[in-house]
Amino acid sequence: MDIFADPSSLNLHVLIETKQGETVASIAELANVQVKADTRGEALVAIQSLLQERLSNVEILPLTIAPKQTSDNPWIEFTGFFEGDDEFAELAEELRLEREFDQDRLA
Question: Which of 82, 86, 96, 107 has the most Cβ atoms closer than 10 angstroms to its Cβ?
Fold first, then answer.
């Protein structure tokens, strides 16, 4: 969600929740901006007023953070680890033959 699409305005989402005769309005993007009122209309006016008050001395700047590059496969870093290791090649061949023997025996 890009709330900074237009630097001259701020596009936010107001959440309206009504329960037990009370209306709560909050700003989805700002967790600590919330008001309670008797009606939906009063809640919208109050949340807008609170938001304007809270943001009157605030400078809003976009911050872009590049996510850490992660590999889809955590084992990829070990690719080729045993390349050229004759002992490992011999062990791998023994395991392959053992698996083939087990599969033939079960068939």
Answer: 82
> What are the pLDDT digits (tens) for 52-79?
998 888 887 888 998 877 767 878 888 8
Prediction pTM value: 0.51
Contact yes or no for 67/76 (Cβ under 8 A): no
Write the DSSP string, the chain.
Answer: --TTSSTT-----EEEEEETTEEEEEETTEEEEEEEESSHHHHHHHHHHHHHHHHTT--------PPPP--SSTTGGGTTTTTT-HHHHHHHHHHHHHHHHHHHHH-
